[in-house]
Amino acid sequence: MTLRMPTPDEAVLARRAEIVAALRAIVPGEGVIDDADELRPYESDGLTAYRQPPMVVVLPETVDQVAAVLRWCHANGVRVVPRGAGTSLSGGALPLADAVLLGMARFNRILAIDYADRIAVVQPGVTNLAITRAVEEEGFYYAPDPSSQIACTIGGNVAENSGGVHCLKYGLTTNNVLGVELVTIEGEVLRLGGRHLDPAGLDLLGVVVGSEGLLGVVTEVTVRILPRPETARAALIGFPTVESAGQCVADVIAAGIIPAGMEMMDRPAIHAAEAFVQVGYPLDVEALLIVEMDGPAAECDHLVDEVARIADANGAVSLRVSNDDAERLAFWAGRKAAFPAVGRIAPDYYCMDGTIPRRRLPEVLRRMSELAAHHGLGVANVFHAGDGNLHPLILYDAHKPGDLERAEEFGNDILRLCVEVGGVLTGEHGVGVEKRDLMPEMFSDIDLKQQQRVKCAFDPASLLNPGKVFPTLHRCAELGRMHVHGGALPFPDLPRF
């Protein structure tokens, strides 16, 4: 492992006792953790290949405490790493040796539900699934549904712009969040958006969703809740090759059909999931599509027939349509459990996240198989086929010398391939540290500096989650330099403030 992180500030480390005492004054009781053994659960997030115990953990319970912690850290030049449930798969919550880890787990209350306006106001520590559980008796639900929805929190979903199997039709987190309360590194409490659609002015809410904890700490989220569809039916379709399944995905979308969800699994993932949950997946196919339609019953029936016709044209060898909701949920149970299921067939796996144009699916899946052979490692594919969001699971053994490094390089090659065919480095897991050094594959130096200027507008001293997203950390003063030649400013016609 050769991950490069910001060099710890020895002066800050020397003040550790002072920092812990100051935090205890702000968050009394059991809200501050500084014991080495008790810090260990926080040393990594879901990307467990990288570990670093934090200097100290603070667990505030109120917005005033969050603001006070950030205000003190800003005044004293101490770095802060925000953390939700720690399910991030890109190292977004990886601690720093000289940073305060700000855990938001105690912000776990649903504050308000308004069925007339179809919104829920929740604290960031509320789990994704808990929102649906709170409103389902009234026939509502929260649409984004990551596979980790039983554990991941809405604050983390906002940080990473998480999706899930139903994001094809209903959008990612950014499409389902109406407003946030945000605390800046200076301790200022801001409200962006609210209970209404499309607030006036700059789209700062769109900047914050997906900002990976680099701009501020979210302390409240207003989300959109939706009425449950009248009907939902799922089709389980087997194919003789992954290429034919990929082509079927492209053809379904090209036909103007937008399923509620369209997921794909290849043979290793199918066998692992079936052994794990035993829901009746076919084991004699190379690829499996789960395609769900929702809406009025007549519409669902018609679209299921259309999908079956397209699948048949692409050589499908099996087709099973759910007869009731229990059977539909069983189809999804295997997909939802695919990640832990794959953990039974290899000592370790590395979960990737890249997105490609749907029409390139057959080519990319073929080239991914070639890369697997080149690197000498297995790969199981489980992904959101409908929007081209790939989640290859690279199989390796961390106890074998060189295996982790090969897995990392394999993963890097997959992400480079995604960019090469017109895709992007991430679909929902974020950049974090995992994809940080690959950012130049997708963005020019000008692009990256412009993104960092946005960071500087919120966090001039770069104290919030440093070392993440950007491969080169510039000081804000460097990014703000203006070249003056011959006494003449560039673009003299622009107003200066």
From TrEMBL:
Keywords for the protein's UniProt record, in alphabetical order: FAD, Flavoprotein, Oxidoreductase
SUPFAM superfamilies, alphabetically?
FAD-binding/transporter-associated domain-like, FAD-linked oxidases, C-terminal domain
What EC designation does it have? 1.1.2.4
Alphabetized Gene3D superfamilies for the sequence: 3.30.465.10, 3.30.70.2740, Vanillyl-alcohol Oxidase, Chain A, domain 4
- Quote the InterPro entries the UniProt record gives: FAD-bd_oxidored_4_C, FAD-bd_PCMH, FAD-bd_PCMH-like_sf, FAD-bd_PCMH_sub2, FAD-linked_Oxase-like_C, FAD-linked_OxidoTrans_Type4, Oxid_FAD_bind_N, Vanillyl_alc_oxidase_C-sub2
Q: Name one GO molecular function term.
A: D-lactate dehydrogenase (cytochrome) activity
Q: Which residues form the FAD-binding PCMH-type domain?
A: 50-228
Name the needed cofactors.
Answer: FAD
Q: Which PANTHER family match?
A: GLYCOLATE OXIDASE SUBUNIT GLCD
- This chain's protein is named D-lactate dehydrogenase (Cytochrome)
